[in-house]
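Chain and backbone:
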Amino acid sequence: MNFHHVSRYALIASAILAIGLSSPPAFAAGQPASRASLVAAAAATVITKTYSVIVNADGTLAVGPAGASSNNFGGNYGYFEVIFPSDVSKCVYTATLGDASPTFPALGFISVTLRSGNPNGVFVRTADTNGTANDHAFHLHVQC
């Protein structure tokens, strides 16, 4: 086996370990893993999901997957929660102001974080350009 093949196997094994495989697949002592077995092991451990929603300023869900819900805590304070049909606690959240209509949204700020006490939820806060809490419609994308 030449160096090129060894480095390719090492790279694939490193990638598998980096995505969370607790221990590499068992192979005969002294035998390198085949590329197919490493790829199969990696595929068996990777679970991905994507959710996208559009939430209206009043907290109602304009667009979203089955089983999702949203809520505005009232009082024009810019506090929202979005609940998804599965755990999103280890995901990446991206949000922007905007609604379901083809118009430009009001300018402002938006921030997102995991919803405390609910691994299926995301907490969203919206504000105007002065930083004053204010209800705004928004788009939220979750990638796991």
Observations:
- The radius of gyration is 22 Å.
- Residues 50-143 form one domain.
- The helical segments are 3-18, 35-45.
- Strands lie at 50-55, 61-63, 69-72, 79-83, 92-97, 109-114, 121-127, 138-143.
